[in-house]
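Margin note from the TA: students keep mixing up input and output lines. Inputs are the sequences; the output is the structure of the whole complex. Example:
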Amino acid sequence: MSEVSMVVNGRKVSGSVEDRTLLVHFLRETLGLTGTHVGCDTSQCGACVVHVDGKAVKSCTMLAAQASGSEVVTIEGLADGADLHPVQAAFKQHHGLQCGFCTPGMIMAATDMIARHPEGLDEKTVRDELEGNICRCTGYHNIVQAILAASKEMGKAKKGKAKKAA
Amino acid sequence: MGMEGIGARVARKEDKRFVTGLGRYVDDMVVPGMKHAAFVRSPHAHADVKKIDVKAAMAMPGVIGVLTGKELKADGIGNLICGWMIHSKDGTPMKMGAWSPLAVDRVRYVGDAVAVVVAETRAQARDAAEAVEVTYKERKAVTDAVAALKSGAPQLHPEADNNLIYDWEIGEAKATDAAIAKAAHVTKMHIVNNRLVPNAMEPRAALGHYDKAEDHYTCWTTSQNPHVARLVMSAFYNVAPENKLRVIAPDVGGGFGSKIYIYPEEIVCLWASKKTGVPVKWVADRTESFLTDAHGRDHVTEVQLAFDKDNNMTALKVDTIANLGAYMSLFSSSVPTYLYATLLSGQYRIPAIHANVRTVYTNTAPVDAYRGAGRPEATYLLERVVETAARELGVAPAELRRKNFIREFPYQTPVIMCYDAGDYEASLSAAMKAADYDGFSKRRDKAKKAGKLRGIGMSCYIEACGIAPSAAVGSLGAGVGLWESAEVRVNGVGTIEVLTGSHSHGQGHETTFAQLVSDRFGVPMDSVSIVHGDTDKVQMGMGTYGSRSGAVGMSAIVKALDKVEAKAKKIAAHLLEADEGDITIENGELKVAGTDKAVPWFQMALAAYTAHNLPAGMEPGLKEGAFYDPSNFTFPAGCYICEVEVDPETGTTEIVQFVAADDFGNIINPMIVEGQVHGGIAQGVGQALLEGCHYDPSSGQLLTASYMDYTMPRAGDLPSFKVSTSNTPCPSNPLGIKGCGEAGAIGSPPAVMNAITDAIGNNDLTMPASPQKVWAAVKAATKH
């Protein structure tokens, strides 16, 4: 058994888990954060993407013990109270989801992608970067639109803030 | 149309919970005392089960029980059945082999379940499943349907000689042969429709809970049709009577047909819950999904299309062998027959059609309806042969199609279907314009200079949705009716609950169904809730598949709304001291037409429930239900154009543009309809370019059992799609809706293959058109 403790969505949590427990199972079963999903066994589908210390990680590919001491953000921790994160809002606005199962992983991967591309995104980059996230419903068309729109929106907001600060 | 009414692009109500991680799928459900199941599955494609030794497994940590097929049978649990009876052309009924939820003495495909372990944790259950010792005596296996029909092939079921399930036909054989004999030109092809694995992103799951106090069962399951699951589990599998069984399908992460069927696992979880005294949950891993979800397609066909000297189509002759896998899944028999051969006329006037279909057992996973179900197979066949004929005849593909289009409606085809409305020219013209078809030759020349082969291909599809009417499908062998039910409950404060037998697993019913109500009564969408997916809440329903929820499910709601409106108007007329014929409903008010007298919607509702001042003799309350049985299928149709660029050095295909022009009749929410088309096209492109399910022909092992081996379409494999719609309203339902869920998957594969074969100048290419196959075909073409 391993003792693990980490900060998940801003809250300090700890628990005793079997050594083989994956981070995704710790989140889902121990913490009851069922927004992070498991869609495959081979780290291909990306339904389980969360942020660990600010980086997008497939939580099915990491042991809970490895994440001990880290700061984890899941889909449940992305919105600011009742206000959706701009990526969540863009997925809703652009119909970037249907059954919703791949959506948490898509949104977590997309927020990471946008953060890594402060210069902005184009369609080809978004499509290439989504290589690790599979969706069976949308044909990706509206997911790509949503991510491009969110990237633009967040870029504008950043510029606005910078202007204010200046 | 208001901001939220019919035709508005309303963002989806259900998205709030999905984008915040608050969706509730079966694997998210927790019941006090819940334990976990793992299935022991056959590693062999075909074997006798000699012995099952559970001793070592029972001694493993956390194990509560290990149960086998013998105990299941002893408790009277029934075999799984196929619910659509097909008769062979000699009049004999189809040959249904026995399918026990847990195999007793023989396994017939890799993944066939033989035992179940229930343990404290999921990991413990899986560990113990590996400790169950099963002694098998291997038999020879056969995975290919054509091989399974040959003499000397391994035999799967004693009921089915030569593995033949049925040998069925439709149309006029003599007239077809005669027309082919005197044709000016006959195009002949051998067509293979590749086997696919549906791969909804949420793996199948079941949670069975037996409540001893009430002697009552609850099953949470990943189902597209919880009521059908309850009916079948009660009537045929003897799990529990309907009044003692509640089936709940909460949020379901995609279905595409694969979650219509009642599988062994949900039956076993319910039975095992009573047997072990604990609630039992099972969730498939992805490899289990590959092994045991019902697969799709897998047809091999010889086709002949005949023309007279003026290029008019005169006859179509089809001979198909369809692989149904190791057992007959719930609706498997209907897919290669009534959902396939009845669509073989396509968009064309073909005076004589004959199709012969043989279905076959093989040592593979059962095959059943997958997005499109029979219509993609018919469309692929017809649109590949029409395009090929155009090339052979030296006619432009669009011109050959135009010449043969059906232009007058209703049109009775020679294969049962009577098309009610359509304008195929409109879709073709719209697609050609959007694709800049006329500019293609310039683009081809430009690509050539860059060392690339550019090709363009089209596909003009027709399909049939909302299978109906019930009496007609019953006469064709269906074991169920194909109506839908709805109940509209107006609460005392005017908010509205709509209970529907349809089930949403991505289609957005919570939004579109609410739009319908909002449009009708002028009430805000937020005051309308859609209730579905629970047999204790909704009395009965047939569920969602075959693109039926708009055409059939919403029509049932319309019928119930009609009744609510009639009563609401009576109440308003009484309150306003007016004639009920003068009452109109607008913007949330019931008004006396032409006056300023009005009563707000909520006040009328309150009056219905206080019952202080109702018309004499009127019952209190405002709640109405309806069952809607359609009078005909609906017939969506359209034209898809695909343009590709092939790199002759690597065989890689890039889709440079994909255009879809569909006629879905009237549309409630264009944003959702476009999303359905996008997703369908991606699945069709997946079939054409990437996806292929492969069994090793000698061992029967599934070689494509994970995302490492089976190529799912990724974002980078696809372009953005250009989609548009035209509209000939469906005359047979009150909303004029046709259905849009499957069109993309039906129309797109032939468009892609027509484009690639056009690019490389070699028509001898099968799906999936992998770089290896395309490269070889390019080389073969340049040799000639």
